Amino acid sequence: MADHVDLVLAQWAAERPDLDASPMAVIGRLTRLHRMIDAELRRTFGSHGLDGASFDVLATLRRSGPPYRLTPTGLMRASMVTSGAITQRLDRLEGRGLVVRSSSESDGRSVLVELTDAGRELVDRVLPDHLDTEQRLLAGLTGAQRDALTGALRTLLESLGDASE
Amino acid sequence: MADHVDLVLAQWAAERPDLDASPMAVIGRLTRLHRMIDAELRRTFGSHGLDGASFDVLATLRRSGPPYRLTPTGLMRASMVTSGAITQRLDRLEGRGLVVRSSSESDGRSVLVELTDAGRELVDRVLPDHLDTEQRLLAGLTGAQRDALTGALRTLLESLGDASE
DNA sequence: AAGATTTATCACAGCGCTAAGAGATCCACT
DNA sequence: AGTGGATCTCTTAGCGCTGTGATAAATCTT
Hints:
The structure is a homodimer.
Chain A: H1 4-15, H2 23-47, H3 52-63, E1 69-70, H4 72-79, H5 83-95, E2 99-103, E3 111-115, H6 117-137, H7 143-159
Antiparallel strand pairs in A: 1-3, 2-3
Chain B binds a DNA duplex through helix 5.
C-alpha cells in the first residue's frame, strides 16, 4: 500500500536524487495526520460552540483537579503556546464566563485562572464527545498497533525533551 | 520513562475515572510532536525569509518536476488546506516573484501556477537545510524505530483515507 | 539598593477557515 | 441541437488564533 507521502518521496527521489528525503517519511506523515485529525476535532468542538484553543485551556484546568486553578504560565507550559497566546485565550474565555482571573496573594506578578461552574460543566459535557471522536479516528488500528505507535511517539517525544514534570 | 502525555492520562484517570481517555495516548502525542516539530521547522524557514506555508507551495511545485506547474486545486489537495488559503499563499508568493499565475487554455475556469527561476533557486537552496533540520529532529530514534514509526503512521493515514493518487 | 529575572499584557502582523460569489464547464432533458 | 441547472474553479471578505517583540510591574539576586 502507498499513501500520499510515499508519492512525495518518490517525486523527490526523481527530482533531487542527491538529497536524502527519508526524514519526510516520518515528519510528513506526522504533519498530514495532524491536519486530518485537527480538522475532525475542530468539528466536534464547533458543535459545542468551542474551538480547540479554548477546549485546551478548559481541559487543562479541569484535569488539574479541584480547585481547577492554574497560572497563565502553567497553562502556557501545558499547551506549548506563547504567553501572548494564553493571554488572548483567557480574554476570550473570561469574556464568556468560563474562567475567572484573580491576582495571586503570594506573588504580585502572578495571576490565578480558575474554572467557573459554567466552564466546568461545559468541559464535562464536551469531553465524552471529544473522546468518541478521537476513538473513531483511531479505529483503523488494532490494539497492538496503537500500543506500538504510542511507544514510538513517546520515544520520539522524550528524545526531544518532553518531560512529565 | 514518562512524558507529558503520561501525566495527562494519569490526571484524567484521577478526575474522570468513568471515561476512557486512552485515545489521547496517541492523539495527544501527535499533537505535541507536531507543535515541537513545527516550531523548529519554522525557524529554519525563517532563516531563509520564508514560512512553512510558502515553502509548502514551492516544494510541491518543485517536486512535481518540469515544468514546475500545477493548478491551485492540485496544490490545495497536496497541502490539505482550503482553496481560500491557497489563493492567499499564491498572492504572497506571486508578489515576491517566486511563482507566476497564468490562465489555462484548456479550461477557462482554471489557473496554472508555475515556479519562477527565483522560486526554484530559493527552494533548492532551502531544501538541504530543511532536511538537515528534519534529520536532527529524528536523531533520537534508531533506524529500526524510525521504520516502525513510519509503518504505524502509514497504517493510520491509510485508515483515514489518505491515498497516493 | 541596583540590576537581572520572572510574569503577564498589549499591539501588530501573518496565516487559516468559513461563507459567499463570479465565471466557466458539464450534464440531462426536451 | 439547445437550454437551464448542477458542478467545478478560483477569488474575496471577514473573523479567529498564533507568534513576535516591546512594555510594565513585582520579585529575586548580589
